[in-house]
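Quick one from the shared queue. A colleague (R.T.) flagged YabP/YqfC family sporulation protein as missing a structural entry in our internal table.

Convert sequence to structure tokens.
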Amino acid sequence: MRLFEEIVARLGLDEEIAAGEKYVVFPGKCAYFENVKGIRVFSAAGVEISFKSGALRVEGEGLSVGQYCGGDLVLFGKVTKVENVL
């Protein structure tokens, strides 16, 4: 079972509502990213994640890596912003 489905099942969420193209944010808890190629920059206030087709910058408070394996990345902490990196 992919990590995304496991998270959705444990939190009791509807997958169709929670799903995003590359990521899903669970406000105040965590964020899940799929098909991650690498982490370019990491701090407790910001993370830059690379994908095959581009990159995302995640901003927040108390960010930490919960799991990073097989292209799946879980960030714990308060995510306040996710944006494309040019």
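Confidence is low (pLDDT under 50) at residues 17-21.
The radius of gyration is 12 Å.
Added to the table.
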